[in-house]
Specification:
Elements lengths: L1 H7 L6 H30 L3 H7 L1 E5 L2 E4 L13 H15 L4 E5 L1 H14 L17 E5 L2 H6 L4 H24 L1 E5 L18 H14 L12 E3 L1 H9 L11 H20 L15 H27 L25 H20 L5 E4 L4 H17 L1 E3 L8 H20 L6 H29 L4 H22 L8 H17 L6 H6 L2 H21 L2 H8 L5 H4 L6 H9 L3 H17 L14 H23 L4 H24 L2 H4 L1 E3 H7 L2 H11 L1 E2 L4 E4 L5 H30 L4 H32 L1
Parallel strand pairs: 3-4, 4-5, 5-6
Antiparallel strand pairs: 1-2, 7-11, 8-9, 10-11
Membrane topology: Multi-pass membrane protein
Subcellular location: Membrane
Family: Belongs to the PC-esterase family. CASD1 subfamily.
């Protein structure tokens, strides 16, 4: 589907028309899917708790996926700090709650599995306490009735009568608590012992039908409902053959049932981000409501201007001197209604974001990594990229087409990495870390080259860069109610851009024009880079000082995540040298280019044949050595410590392999370059309209067909990212005027607006603290 989106926009002559049609098609798809899911939830039942309890499927061994929602994995890990966190979750959920398990030996086993999720040190024994009313009742029985009466019809009738007798008490318990009836799991009839041969799957089906038909007979009181746990039965149908005695379930299947029950009881209390099942939607915050009003107001203004212009429009009078008609749009590149039109489009797009990841409309599923889900799309993607190769307009090292290509294929790899959950596989994780470092390398390379060659340190240029980097993220922070640091890459790139600007703009400003007059200025720029390196090293080994600086309000509001700046410290430290690598490389390259050391003509090798072959060999060996090292990594923490010191070598090796051969430098992949032009939008948009639950899961637009779902969601996702890129460019022209006085007024207004948001946020946090 990414190929379709690219192919529709490949030829410049038809690019606007084709991409416009693709976006209209995606809009129609969104409307139809929204209507379908809304109607399905209204008429077919949209309770995610029912989805959790009723059905699902195995994604892999011991990994259960409920239908339409994500199940949080409450797990006990031997590590002390993680174990304490798990206990805290359980204590928060089950504090002052009494959970009763009532039934036969299979319910007893379910009880053991449930208890071991909370505390694995507990022994397998239960405690009878009939004098206390339980808050949660988990009940189920049938096998003993079948066994004692040899599966007779009288036993089934008596079972139904007993259910009728306890139905009202169970419903009364459900009014103030929760009652779960566990449907009978199947048996493996071939291995049942002789005294259990009468317990057949046919008998169990009859008993399950009796329970479903008898309980919840009081239709008037919808609140007092007994919930049926049938998902564990569905899981058992796939694993019962592993049962040792044919009756009791294997441990992994019992754990599935226990985890389902834990999610049903605790998700509504703990609201884990990994678990969308059984969670009620939070009410929109004040900022979300105000943001919606702004978009609605922009839409109304746009419609008014559009209708008003339509009624007042007249044919353009001919020029009496030339006899030609004057074009109506010649006066200005953007009409007065263009900003409101852009905001109207952005409002519609943000409505889709909200529906995908904040409203209870579309489904979500959890990720599950397998080698095939990552490597097969990866191979397919690179084959397409090579197939769509074209001659480059210029053959200089790291020309614009090549850097767009580089950003494009890296972004596509990162997208596949995220949706496949490949972070669980350490070798892939380490290679993707190099790609993120390469993005920052390009930031250092690009901005250093601009300032060195152009010498433009004006406020207009700075504001343009900051606006284009941050516009989408700031809007998402307001619409999705997420902190700025949540979209970590944009704060990271923004921070380093400011550092690069400060380094190059501070006295003495050293530019290429000045350096051409005296070689001493080259030493001056190296001294600046050395100072930047010392600055980075100082903070890298002073975590306390780093945290103190970035914990001061209001700076902390930009870098905190969940009340801590630990995530910012981790991201900053991990790629702390990538920027300076890019700046140093740009300086050395421009110096070599100035003294004509490089051969950048079409078809020419970058260096002499001997030097080119040696550098290519070293680069290939470097790649192979890194891959072997990454494959031998035992844990992420140790490998991340090495990453800042060796990632730059891999980036340099790639640049040399890509640019030394003249034929390689003369070609580029237009497929990758197209995606590279919208790489930032792709990276940010994936959080909510391709992935789900703030990147923890996968958005499901087409339930029951994962392949078709990926195709449709990817097509919409790419179209949305491309449109946001255009909207950002349009609004940048309006929001950042070239006139200095007007720009200062805009900055003052933006500062007041930001301060207001920070104060509102601080006030909201204070109110929450008082509430607790």
């Amino acid at each position: 589907m990414a190929v379709l989106a690219y192919s529709l926009g490949k030829r410049e002559i038809n690019q606007y028309f084709c991409i416009k049609n693709a976006k209209l098609l995606s809009l129609v798809a969104v409307i139809l899917l929204t209507v379908f899911h809304t109607v399905s939830r209204y008429y077919g039942g949209g309770d995610t708790c029912e989805w959790l309890l009723s059905s699902g499927r195995f994604l892999g061994e011991n990994v259960w996926q409920p239908y339409g929602c994500m199940m949080h994995k409450y797990k006990s890990i031997p590590k002390l700090h993680n174990y304490q966190i798990v206990c805290h979750e359980a204590k928060t959920c089950l504090a002052e709650k009494r959970v009763a398990f009532i039934g036969d030996s299979r319910i007893r086993q379910l009880f053991y599995s449930y208890i071991q999720i909370i505390d694995p040190t507990q022994k397998e024994n239960g405690r009878k306490d009939p004098s206390v009313k339980p808050d949660v009742v988990i009940i189920g029985a049938a096998t003993w009735s079948i066994k004692l009466r040899s599966g007779s019809s009288e036993a089934l009738q008596q079972y139904r009568a007993n259910l009728t007798a306890i139905s009202l008490p169970l419903e009364q318990l459900a009014e103030d608590g929760e009652v779960y009836w566990v449907l009978q799991d199947p048996v493996h009839e071939e291995v049942l012992s002789g005294n259990r041969k009468m317990i057949t799957n046919e008998q169990l089906d009859l008993y399950n039908e009796a329970a479903l038909g008898t309980l919840n007979s009081n239709k008037k009181n919808a609140k007092a409902r007994v919930r049926f746990l049938g998902a564990s039965r569905q899981a058992a149908m796939e694993t019962i053959a592993q049962s040792a005695d044919g009756l009791h379930l294997p441990e992994n299947t019992r754990n599935v049932g226990a985890m389902i029950l834990m999610n049903a009881v605790c998700n509504k209390v703990l609201r884990p981000i990994h678990g969308s099942c059984c969670q009620a939607l939070p009410a929109p915050s004040l900022l979300q409501k105000l943001t919606a009003c702004v978009f609605l107001g922009s839409t109304l203004v746009f419609l008014f201007k559009h209708i008003n212009r339509h009624w007042k429009s007249r044919p353009t009078p001919p020029d009496v001197e030339s006899g030609e008609e004057k074009p109506a749009t010649a006066a200005s590149p953007l009409s007065h209604k263009a900003p409101f039109q852009a905001m109207c489009k952005m409002g519609l797009i943000m409505a889709y974001f909200y529906l995908c990841d904040r409203a209870d409309v579309f489904m979500k599923e959890q990720k599950f990594y397998t080698h095939s889900t990552f490597f097969i799309p990866l191979v397919y993607m690179f084959v397409l990229g090579i197939f769509y190769s074209e001659n480059s307009k210029e053959t200089k090292l790291l020309n614009r087409e090549q850097t767009d290509e580089w950003k494009g294929w890296m972004q596509l790899v990162i997208l596949i990495y995220h949706i496949s959950g490949a972070s669980a596989f350490i070798p892939v994780y380490m290679h993707v870390r190099v790609l993120v470092a390469a993005y920052l390398f390009q930031t250092g390379y690009g901005h250093f080259s601009f300032f060195w060659l152009k010498g433009d340190f004006g406020l207009y240029r700075v504001c343009q860069v900051l606006f284009r980097l941050n516009f989408l993220v700031i809007v998402l922070c307001l619409v999705m109610d997420r902190p700025y640091q949540f979209y970590y890459f944009v704060p990271l790139v923004t921070f380093w851009f400011v550092i690069i600007y400060a380094t190059m703009a501070m006295w003495p400003q050293i530019l290429q024009k000045k350096a051409n007059g005296s070689g001493m200025w080259h030493i001056g720029i190296l001294v600046k880079l050395l100072g930047l390196l010392l600055f980075i090293c100082f903070f890298a080994y002073s975590q306390g000082l780093f945290e103190n600086i970035f914990s001061v309000w209001p700076v902390s509001k930009l870098f905190e995540l969940n009340g801590s700046i630990h995530e910012w410290w981790f991201r900053w430290k991990l790629d702390r040298f990538a920027i300076i690598h890019g700046m140093l490389f740009a300086f050395v390259y421009l110096l070599l280019q100035k003294y004509q050391v490089l051969s950048e003509g079409k078809g020419e090798s970058l260096f002499s044949t001997r030097i080119s072959n040696i550098l290519l060999l070293i680069s290939v060996v470097s790649f192979m050595t890194y891959s072997i090292w990454a494959s031998s990594c035992k844990n992420k923490t140790e490998c991340n410590e090495m990453h800042p010191y060796i990632s730059g070598l891999q980036i340099l090796a790639f640049i040399l392999i890509r640019n030394i051969p003249g034929y390689a430098r003369s070609l580029y992949s237009s497929f990758f370059a197209w995606f590279g032009k919208i790489s930032l939008e792709l990276f940010i948009c994936q959080y909510h309209i391709w992935l789900a639950a703030d990147t923890k899961g996968i958005l499901v637009l087409i339930p029951g067909n994962p392949s078709l779902n990926i195709i449709i969601s990817t097509f919409i996702f790419v179209c949305v990212a491309h449109e946001i890129s255009l909207i950002t460019n349009d609004l940048a022209q309006v929001a950042i005027p070239k006139d200095g006085a007007a720009l200062l007024k805009r900055l003052l207004a933006a500062g007041v607006f930001t301060l207001g948001l920070l104060l509102m946020s601080k006030s909201a946090e204070g109110n929450q603290g008082e509430g607790h």
